[in-house]
Structures are given as structure tokens and as C-alpha cells.
Amino acid sequence: MKQIKVKWPLNPQETVLFKVDGVYIKNNFNAKQVTLYITNERIVLESKRMLMFFLFGIIGWLLTRKKITLEFPLSDITDFRRTKHGFNKKVAEFDLIDGRTIRIGVSGKWEVFDAAYQKAMIDVQPLFSVN
Asked: Which of 37, 58, 60, 117 would disulfide-bridge 52, Cβ 3.0–4.6 Å?
């Protein structure tokens, strides 16, 4: 299996399982290009700073290369479903335990992303027990 390198610190015993480009859909009028990483503990969205590249060239791009836009633990996810946004029918929608809904448009094949997500969720321990 190919090892995926990241520029942000990983937790102990954390490994990156999957990486895909996508769009973080904040609302109907605001979206941001991101790279989505699925680890065995969390989902991380890393923004792409293309505006700095266009404004200041390669120096601006190097200064602001990658920044984490959003991250949330896999154990906080209460529901996951496939939805659509406009013409894009490959939008992952996550409902979190704190009431937020995160929408991410995924590039590539949906089945590959879904399989990686399901594989990551197999070992997740829930925050609470029904007992």
C-alpha cells in the first residue's frame, strides 16, 4: 500500500488511509477547493491556496502552501449519506454529534471514496454506549 505523506502532525498510531481532491461546500454561495484525507481517527480537509499563487506567484504559494480548513473525528459522525449539489451528484454529507452538517464534493469515483470511508469506520469506537 502506498504511504500518503501530509504536512500536518499526525496523532500517535494515526495513519492516512485515503486522499482525494474535492470541494468543501460551506453554503449555496461559498465553496472552497480542498484535499480530503481520511485517517483511521479523523477526516481532515486541507485547503488549496491558489489565490496566493495567482496574486504573488510561486513565493506566495510557498508561504501559504497548505492549511487545515476543517477536521473532525470519525467518532463524531452520526450519519453519512450521498447527496447532490447542483449538477454534482458526488457530494458526501456528514452529520456530526454537535449538530453541524458538513458537505464535501468528491472528485473521482464515488465507490472508491465510499469504500475508503466504510473501511475507516469499521474500527471506530463510539463516544457513548447504549447499555
From this structure: 60
43: amino acid identity, one letter? I
Q: How far apart are the first and last CA of the chain?
A: 38
Give one word for 127, left, alpha or beta, with left for phi > 0 and alpha for psi -120 to 50. Answer: alpha
pLDDT tens digits for range 86-101: 777 889 999 999 999 9
Cβ atoms within 10 Å of 22's Cβ, excluding its own: 22
pTM for this structure?
A: 0.79
CA 3 vs CA 40, 73, 116: distances in Å: 14, 21, 14
Give CA–CA dist 126/123, Å, rounded: 10
User: Which one-letter amino acid corresponds to residue 101?
Assistant: T
Half-sphere exposure at residue 130, Cβ-oriented, CA atoms within 13 angstroms: 0
Q: Are 2 and 16 in contact (CB under 8 A)?
A: no
Cell of 66: 497548505
Contacts of 4 (CB under 8 A, 6+ apart): 16, 17, 18, 19, 37
CA distance 36 to 23: 9
Residues facing residue 21 across a β-bridge: 35
